Amino acid sequence: MHTIIVKNNHDVLVFGANEHGQLGLGHIDNQLEPQTLMQKIPIRQIACGYRHTVILRENNDVLVFGRNIHGQLGLGHNDGQYESQILMQGIVIRQIACGAQHTIILQENNDVLVFGYNGRGQLGLGHNDNQNKPVKLMQNVKQIEGYNVNIKWSSENHHQFSTAFRNRIHCFLLIHKRNQNSTRLKIPKFVLFEIFKKV
Question: Domain containing 34: what range?
Answer without folding.
Answer: 2-141
